[in-house]
Amino acid sequence: MPDPAPGERIQKTLAAAGHGSRRDIEAWIEAGRVTVNGKPARLGQKLRGRERVTLDGRLLELATTAHHRHLMYYKPVGEVTSRRDEKGRKTVFNRLPSPGNARWVSVGRLDISTQGLLIMTTDGELAHRLMHPSFELERRYAVRVLGAPLSAEQLQQLTDGVELDDGPARFDSIVAQKGDRGGRTTVSNSWYQVALREGRNREIRRMFEKVGLTVSRLIRVGYGPVVLDRRIVRGRHRPLTPREAELLYESVGLGGKRATNKPSARRRDERSGGGKKKIGKRRGKTAPSKQTAAREGKVGARGKQPSSARGKTSARGKTSAHGKASARGKASNRPAPRGNKVS
Could you say which of 111, 160, 166, 172 is catalytic? Predict the structure, then answer.
């Protein structure tokens, strides 16, 4: 009998299950922190889904059917895109809600002086593809440059390509802008929107330095099909909409997957961004309990409000405060309760 079909590589399986990015998992395997059936895991080892896999002795779930979560985070200047920082600086992960048994993975990185869009996901396979150069996803940035506007020669250099220490680099497009959030180009600075399909360290700043200009402000405004929602306050986040998540999966050939945030998690995320509870139209009209209403003589045996409780006229044409005529046909002296309405 032939052997069963081989499974997926261990780093891909664990990433798809939400335990981290492929890069993180590969580092754990190389450090000897991952075991498979009690033995040290190997890079590229195939899993069929029935193995016992642990990380630092903790059993890892291999199922990939769980719903993944995705966030749009507006990174402010001063935060680092790493899980821990040796210098004690704030990290982008400090502000994120708990992902439960999963692990947040940042799609790409932004240096400490750059702000803007960061996509966070618990789907390690999705994150790996979004960052992989072979998919060539476009990154878009708003750039403020010190000094006068770019000359035609400088624009040509940046779109044709400049040589950096780690290889050539070029912008797919560069367009003059009025400015960020209503700012305007002045004699002292100029705004541009640029697009490129890779994310090397400080690449945009180095490209402008190559043509003699200094970037004074840098904001990522788009990544692939996702655009930064400017209604988000810096340092806050919101869940991606189902359509945004769907477009991300489709952009890297994972169109068969769908992402759904759990309702409880969505509410937590909305609260972190200032979400509000909905208030019904019938404000202030609250039904009293049956016990309370019964004491006030307003609810019948079946919990219904008798017509007499609404102050209707009795057969003799005289009205009792409680809907009953007195023996002499006069209204009872007992004060009527306040008319709480039953919704």
Answer: 111
